[in-house]
């Protein structure tokens, strides 16, 4: 079984290359963030043509999340806080014998802003939701764009970036709380070194070629899912394609 996560930075802009990638890689489940489209405009038909069901929560211009799946989903939830969250950042459900939660964590803007406080609270609320609905013994994956680089290996210049949004100790503390609860950072089960990034800012000249990046996308799993993982990898080639997102695909493969 193959599960991937990808911040599209607009699903409609990325649709041709996204369809091509899906045909080539054949993920069983693909979690998307920042789809930037209202529900009525989500290209579900295009994914259905290649064999994928879609569940999604969209929002005009900003945010938005989706799960594309070859597998039937049950117990679908499209809001962290209730039935009509102000921002579209959460979608989850049960697939086969495990639960999947796909998130797009707020970016935070600046450390002295209300948006940063909202980001910290959102991460706390995500942990509260997970604690309420699951135990570490349950088969659970929590994936997506967390907008947090966890340690020095996950950014190109940790000394310069320390304390900035995305690499701030208060954000890292909240992400580690998810790990302390019982989730494992599955990429780190297979790759311990630095320089493994999932995001390269468009604004940095030749940032991708120079590998000036961040690792802010994650696939986290409870022990039952971590034990089933056989490989986790970052598709750097996709970031170098024509009209790419500023993120690329993070892929995990599991037994069964």
Question: How would you portray this structure in words?
Answer:
This protein is an alpha+beta fold and 256 residues long. It has one domain: 4-Layer Sandwich (Deoxyribonuclease I, Chain A). The chain is 27% helix and 25% strand. The chain has a six-stranded mixed beta sheet.
Q: Can I get a quick summary?
A:
The protein has 256 residues and is α+β, with helices and mostly antiparallel strands. It has helices at 11-25, 44-49, 114-133, 158-161, 169-181, 187-190, 223-226, 236-239, and strands at residues 2-7, 29-33, 53-57, 65-69, 73-77, 90-95, 98-104, 140-145, 184-185, 217-221, 229-234, 250-254.
**Range of helix content:** 25-40%
At CATH level 2, the architecture is 4-Layer Sandwich
What's the mean pLDDT score? 97
Query: What are the low-pLDDT stretches, counting only 5+ consecutive residues below 50?
Result: none
The biggest sheet amounts to: 6 strands, mixed
What does the radius of gyration come to? 17 Å
Question: Strand order across the biggest sheet?
Answer: 3-4-2-1-12-11
Q: Please give the count of helices.
A: 8
| Distance between the amino and carboxyl termini | 6 Å
**CATH class term:** Alpha Beta
Strand content: 15-25%
Set down the secondary structure blueprint:
Elements: E1 2-7, H1 11-25, E2 29-33, H2 44-49, E3 53-57, E4 65-69, E5 73-77, E6 90-95, E7 98-104, H3 114-133, E8 140-145, H4 158-161, H5 169-181, E9 184-185, H6 187-190, E10 217-221, H7 223-226, E11 229-234, H8 236-239, E12 250-254
Parallel strand pairs: 1-2, 7-8
Antiparallel strand pairs: 1-12, 2-4, 3-4, 5-6, 6-7, 8-10, 9-10, 11-12
